[in-house]
């Protein structure tokens, strides 16, 4: 059973009682992410995410870790382009403890300067680690160009320069301005009672009265591009894409069905054509990145330098076939079962259910049942998929980024419509 309570200051509390489990997953979500940062603030949401575990007025960082370890629980956090979440999972008998810990770090973290300096070095190492991971890096490079001149282009973790410049005053000001009650959702799923959970939370959260006026979000203009970033690697990592679906796009179910057929399963067209039939890549997949007001659908592959051009042509050929013929009824039926199966299998995790509660509340302002989603998936037709793809995909404006030992000539031959933007390893 799903229940919702809105506190007097606007904070929303959403729970799902699952009486047959022994755990509770709880998360404090704020509808704020890297797209809400100004240029000098790049990476600040992610920095705050780290700092909230580094000590409060009542607890040191070690105290926080010890209290949860002592009951077999765990806590973590993540930052995305549009949200930051602080979450934990414990046995149901320890719910009062996890509520106390999470509300304490959320409301009373001290942001001690020495802790900030130490964590700054950790984040700089995290940035270096991502730079050394070509699969992660090519996605970041691609999005920097695809969302160019918009905050969605910015890496979630910021840049070394902005991270070095962040200080306690900037963090506290950002939280007062952005962590407003109306943007906060507390979600919990597991063996708990809603009213008792609200009673645990209300004394602490009712006192939050941040009333800042953050800048409103604005939608990006998409930038088709042909980008080559030369880097000394064993493989060439490629990423290409085109407009996708937003979180609430009426065509999102068609988009996700297409994603399964194109490259998001082992039986997909790209996995079979690129890997199984031709042996061009070990890793190849399609993906959908959705945001509040826009989205991206793309394809990733890592291939030998000599096979880049063939791989790109195979990918283009598969998308051209979908544009001309849509997908088959057999593919449609299999994709629907894949999506529904994934949804129900994830539903067996209290973490997944907690995430789903929060995301539905943030995006739609209400609970959306599994049956409702299943009905929407079942309603998709091959014509719906064809029509959605026709509106999203145009070969002449597809965006492409290549990372590795590759020349611009490959893109000039495969994608002649848009000039290539080249970058060297030294520019990174």
From TrEMBL:
<dbReference type="Pfam" id="PF00675">
    <property type="entry name" value="Peptidase_M16"/>
</dbReference>
<dbReference type="GO" id="GO:0046872">
    <property type="term" value="F:metal ion binding"/>
</dbReference>
<dbReference type="GO" id="GO:0004222">
    <property type="term" value="F:metalloendopeptidase activity"/>
</dbReference>
<dbReference type="InterPro" id="IPR011765">
    <property type="entry name" value="Pept_M16_N"/>
</dbReference>
<feature type="domain" description="Peptidase M16 C-terminal">
    <location>
        <begin position="173"/>
        <end position="338"/>
    </location>
</feature>
<dbReference type="Pfam" id="PF05193">
    <property type="entry name" value="Peptidase_M16_C"/>
</dbReference>
<dbReference type="InterPro" id="IPR011249">
    <property type="entry name" value="Metalloenz_LuxS/M16"/>
</dbReference>
<protein>
    <submittedName>
        <fullName>Predicted Zn-dependent peptidase</fullName>
    </submittedName>
</protein>
<dbReference type="InterPro" id="IPR007863">
    <property type="entry name" value="Peptidase_M16_C"/>
</dbReference>
<dbReference type="GO" id="GO:0006508">
    <property type="term" value="P:proteolysis"/>
</dbReference>
<dbReference type="InterPro" id="IPR050361">
    <property type="entry name" value="MPP/UQCRC_Complex"/>
</dbReference>
<dbReference type="InterPro" id="IPR001431">
    <property type="entry name" value="Pept_M16_Zn_BS"/>
</dbReference>
<feature type="domain" description="Peptidase M16 N-terminal">
    <location>
        <begin position="12"/>
        <end position="159"/>
    </location>
</feature>
<comment type="similarity">
    <text>Belongs to the peptidase M16 family.</text>
</comment>
């Amino acid at each position: 059973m799903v229940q919702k309570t809105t506190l007097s200051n606007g904070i929303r509390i959403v729970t799902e009682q699952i009486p047959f489990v022994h755990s509770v997953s709880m998360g404090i979500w704020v509808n704020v992410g890297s797209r809400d940062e100004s240029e000098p603030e790049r990476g600040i949401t992610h920095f705050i995410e780290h700092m909230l575990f580094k000590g409060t007025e009542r607890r040191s960082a070690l105290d926080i870790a010890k209290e949860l370890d002592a009951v077999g629980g765990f806590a973590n956090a993540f930052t995305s382009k549009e949200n930051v979440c602080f979450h934990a999972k414990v046995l149901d008998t320890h719910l009062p403890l996890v509520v106390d810990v999470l509300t304490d770090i959320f409301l009373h973290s001290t942001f001690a300067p020495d802790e900030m300096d130490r964590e700054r070095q950790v984040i700089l190492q995290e940035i270096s680690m991502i730079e050394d991971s070509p699969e992660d890096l090519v996605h970041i490079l691609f999005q920097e160009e695809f969302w160019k001149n918009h905050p969605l282009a910015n890496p979630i973790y910021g840049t070394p320069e902005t991270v070095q410049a962040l200080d306690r005053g900037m963090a506290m000001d950002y939280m007062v301005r952005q962590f407003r009650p109306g943007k906060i959702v507390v979600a919990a799923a597991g063996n708990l009672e809603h009213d008792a959970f609200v009673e645990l939370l209300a004394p602490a959260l009712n006192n939050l009265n941040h009333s800042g006026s953050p800048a409103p979000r604005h939608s990006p203009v998409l930038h088709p591009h042909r980008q080559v970033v030369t880097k000394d690697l064993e493989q060439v990592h490629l990423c290409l894409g085109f407009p996708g679906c937003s979180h609430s796009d009426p065509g999102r179910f068609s988009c996700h069905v297409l994603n399964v057929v194109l490259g998001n399963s082992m039986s997909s067209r790209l996995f079979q054509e690129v890997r199984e039939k031709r042996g061009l890549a070990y890793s190849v997949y399609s993906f959908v990145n959705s945001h509040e007001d826009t989205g991206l659908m793309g394809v990733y592959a890592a291939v030998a330098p000599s096979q880049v051009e063939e791989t790109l042509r195979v990918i283009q050929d598969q998308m051209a076939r979908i544009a001309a013929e849509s997908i088959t009824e057999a593919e449609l039926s299999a994709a629907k079962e894949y999506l529904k199966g994934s949804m129900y299998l994830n539903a067996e995790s209290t973490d997944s259910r907690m995430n789903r509660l929060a995301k539905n509340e943030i995006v739609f302002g209400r609970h959306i049942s599994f049956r409702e989603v299943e009905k929407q998936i079942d309603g998709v037709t091959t014509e719906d998929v064809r029509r959605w793809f026709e509106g999203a995909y145009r070969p002449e404006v597809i965006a492409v980024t290549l990372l590795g030992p590759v020349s611009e000539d490959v893109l000039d031959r495969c994608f002649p419509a848009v000039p290539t933007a080249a970058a060297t390893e030294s520019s990174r």
